[in-house]
Amino acid sequence: MPNCRPAGPRRPLSAAGVLSAVAATVLATGCAAIDDERPAAPVPTPPARTLKTPDTLLAMPRSAVPLPAGLPRFRLDELTREATPATSTVEATYGRSRPTAETIVVSAVSGTVADPQATLARLLKPYRIPKPKSVEFGRFGGEARCGRGRTADQGHLTACAWADPQVAGVVVFLTPARQPDRKEDFLAIRDELERPAG
């Protein structure tokens, strides 16, 4: 049989031993805390953008046809106050009479948009749209909203506005008859208007 000796009483840890154990614990937990609090990677800054006025939009040429009488608009001089300083602007009208009469009005400004949410609300206010809805904003980010309304001559309009820290603008579709959903058209137009700067 193995020679079993009774276990004697355990020797208490010395003060130095206790301090060593505490120090090891603090070091271990301290490292874990440092790892947990490591700062997140910085969010990349979007590239600077500028605006251009295309020759055509949705296959429609630029038009000099007067807009409907009494059409409420967010005019360019008002729009430039939404970005300080304004670095580029667009204000143009496009249209066709066949096969279906349609007019598109675009206004946009680039610069520093201090409050995109407030700017977005102001851009849509002249068009008296009861309940504008958030829509897909496209590859440049920000926020966008669209809604439907009527003109003074009982025509139909769809207004889509967007705003982000660099660019704000509005696109208005005008037709004599009720319109289909214009969200895809709005995204295509925004892609045409905005370009990386430089």
Overall description:
The protein is of the alpha+beta class and 198 residues long. It has one domain (49-196): Protein Transport Mog1p, Chain A (3-Layer(aba) Sandwich). 23% of the residues lie in helices and 28% in strands. It has four helices and ten strands; from the N terminus they run αβββαββαββββαβ. It has helices at residues 15-36, 76-79, 116-124, 183-193; strands at 49-51, 56-57, 60-61, 88-96, 102-110, 133-135, 143-150, 156-163, 167-175, 194-196. The strands form three sheets. A six-stranded antiparallel beta sheet has the order 4-5-9-8-7-6. The chain has a two-stranded antiparallel ribbon with strand order 1-10. A two-stranded antiparallel ribbon has the order 2-3. Strand 7 (143-150) and strand 8 form a beta hairpin.
What key attributes describe this structure?
two-stranded antiparallel ribbon; alpha+beta; about 200 residues; 6-stranded antiparallel sheet; Protein Transport Mog1p, Chain A
